[in-house]
Amino acid sequence: MRNLIWLSAAVLALMSPTFGEEGAEVSKEEIAKLIEELPTPAVLQSQCNIAHSNQPNKYTEQAKQEATAMIARTKEIIPKLRKSLKTGASVFNYPGLLCKGDISFDAGLETYTLYLGVSLMPEGGEGTVRTKFKITFDSKGKILRVENVVSKA
Asked: From its phi and psi, is residue 75 left (phi > 0), alpha (psi between -120 and 50) or beta?
């Protein structure tokens, strides 16, 4: 019987989406810090405009470096935050999260979708955007899905 229990635990660990990922479990405090560090969509868009500006002398070199650093930090935060969000939990268990992305409502399905991250087109113009994901939740805040964003050119 003990072998069966141990085997079941091993199988469940292998089936876990975070199996084999170093530091997969993140504390509430760490999640709160990630959310706090994540820029709002308006700030992120502004920083992307600065970092990728082709107009000479419009922005200082320091402003471009700071914008690039913020984008890089956001790219680090997004995968960690995505792994930390649990399907079935309430989106309200993650204070501050809702103001860090763009929200849409699907009247037919009666669900909300929150988009978080940096919209950078993958190589070739199509595929999974690793720096952006979406959270689908119901009217009570229950997280139904956490998915990568897939772009199509």
From this structure: alpha
Evaluate whether 66 touches 73 at the Cβ level (below 8 Å). no
- CA–CA separation, 39 and 117 (whole Å): 9
101-106-108 Cα angle (round to 5): 170
φ/ψ of residue 78, rounded to 5: -55, -50
Q: Is the pTM of this model over 0.70?
A: yes
Tokens (6 digits) for 145: 């899905």
Supply angle C-alpha 12, 85, 105, rounded to 5.
125
* Residues forming a β-bridge with 102: 115
DSSP 53: -
pLDDT in tens, 63-78: 999 999 999 899 899 9
- Please, are residues 120 and 97 in contact by the beta-carbon 8 Å criterion? no
